[in-house]
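Write out the 3D structure for:
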Amino acid sequence: MRKSPGRALSLFAMAGLVAAPFVLRGSPLDDADPAANPEPAPLRGGVLVLAPLVDTLTGRHVRWFSWTALALSLAALLVPFWRKAGFDITTAAAIDVGCYVAAYFVRLRFMSRLAKSDDPNASKRYFVEEQMVATPAVVLTMIVLALIGPAEIATPLRHGFTGLPRDAWWVVVVIGIFSQGTGIFGGLVLLDKRENSFCVPVNRASSLLAGTCAALVLAALTAVRRPGWDELVGASLLVAAILLLSVPDVVKKRRALSAVRASRG
């Protein structure tokens, strides 16, 4: 049982993912609306582009609907980002995007090798190992950066640990629970035995769509501005991608049901 590579590479991959929000602070990538798109577009788009590459390297067949959903998800991502932020980024941001995408490349490669199979125990084993290593590593990384990191990184982190009002802690805990839940279920989606070109669009599309829906709810309840037409167009493309990815399973279930009915005569 190959536990060490999975743990070590999960730690490396997650460490790269953790660094992104801090290095990107103050860059043009920060212009994207955090309510509708909490993760900058180059990061999401880079992972979408990686999916068919990893599938090719691991010898997985990419079906036509996965290719189409991949294109729809990428288009949905780029429409609002192109309108608001443009594609000019700082050198630091470009380096960070490269590290983030490289970390996801390693993560998807090892998921494909060690976990994405017909054996459910392999996926569960990998998932547990990754969570046991990566989650504590995220917390420890933030603590270390808060103590000895550069001022522009350490100051907001210290404030997050020590400067919040007491009546705000419950809000932070709730946000943390939902954030961790997103990571858990997102990881389980990526570990599905189907090709990465299927799983990654499902992972990215659900996240972006949830952000847009949350922005609509906030706009209805508070003074937060409503998502613009470009974000709604992007959400529509994501709905189309999700519906497209669901078609094969729906067709398969209907055929199986028809076969059962035919056998019963």
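The mean pLDDT is 77.
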